[in-house]
Specification:
The chain is α+β, with helices and mostly antiparallel strands. Helix content is 19%, strand content 46%. The radius of gyration is 35 Å and the shape is elongated.
């Protein structure tokens, strides 16, 4: 008896170990869907660059200091094979980003086994002879035959997959009104100041009017042209109102008040960059 096996059906295991067909950087993206329509977008963009970071918050500050603004982010947990750079670049090109800062960190390994169903066919070969006697003598006949029994067997195939955390922040080169990148007041600073008013200077662009005026990250803008900054949205309205003029920005720094005259660009700005 001779056993014959077909090719192994490995499709299930291949699907498990391979990176997903869908791009996770697109699947988990949140932000501006087309940065080219973002008002601060500078038409003179550099070529796309992907930078890998060991300290993503530090490198975000550095990117803003060099004139870039974030337009979106992709964050997810999954197979390390999904973090290939081609996926990062595909999403950046889709939204028009020209700088991506990427952080990846392996957090563990997922192991297990998947069942594989294999053919288990059995074929039996048989031989036979027959002799006939007659008046003219004898004659011998030969014959063969086969018999196949079809079946399957299940075996467990082990696997090991590296798992990690991924974070990618997408940027474009931008035109700034004053050179300050503004954010809403964090809750801990609200508590410390015992006030809901004002907005936080997150970063200052090198070479900008704000940089030349020695405005610093961590300063708090409390008034523009004497008008109190009541909220993040209202600050945006003030900057819009005073576009193409020079106004006094009143800042709070270390418990002291500082006044800085700053020119304000006239183009319309949305989002977190002012």
């Amino acid at each position: 008896m001779k056993r014959q096996f077909g090719s192994l059906c490995l499709a299930g295991l291949v699907a498990l170990l391979a990176a997903c067909a869908a791009n996770p950087y697109s699947q988990f993206y949140k932000g501006n869907e087309d940065a080219r329509k973002f008002p601060p977008y500078d038409p003179n963009q550099p070529s796309l660059s992907v930078s890998y970071s060991a300290d993503i918050q530090r490198d975000i500050h550095s990117a803003i200091r060099h004139g870039f603004v974030p337009v979106g982010e992709s964050a997810f947990h999954g197979n390390m094979a999904q973090g290939k750079e081609s996926n990062v670049r595909a999403q950046a090109e889709k939204i028009g980003a020209t700088l991506v800062i990427v952080s990846t960190r392996q957090t563990g390994t997922q192991t297990g086994a998947v069942p594989l169903v294999l053919p288990n066919n059995s074929t039996t070969y048989s031989n036979a002879t027959a002799t006939a006697y007659g008046p003219s003598g004898t004659a011998t006949a030969y014959g063969t035959g086969t018999s196949t029994t079809y079946g399957t067997q299940t075996v467990m195939m082990p696997y090991s997959v590296n798992i990690g955390d991924f974070d990618a922040v997408y940027f474009v080169k931008a035109r700034f009104r004053t050179g300050m990148y503004i954010k809403e007041m964090p809750d801990d600073i609200r508590q410390q100041r015992q006030s809901n008013f004002g907005v936080l200077v997150f970063e200052v662009v090198e070479g900008s009017p704000a940089y030349a005026a020695d405005i610093l990250p961590g300063d708090i803008v409390v008034a523009v042209n004497g008008e109190k900054v009541q909220s993040f949205q209202q600050y945006g309205a003030l900057v819009e109102k005073y576009g193409n003029t020079t106004q006094i920005f009143t800042l709070e720094r270390g418990g002291k008040t500082v006044d800085k005259p700053l020119p304000i660009a006239s183009y319309h700005v949305q989002g977190t960059q002012k």
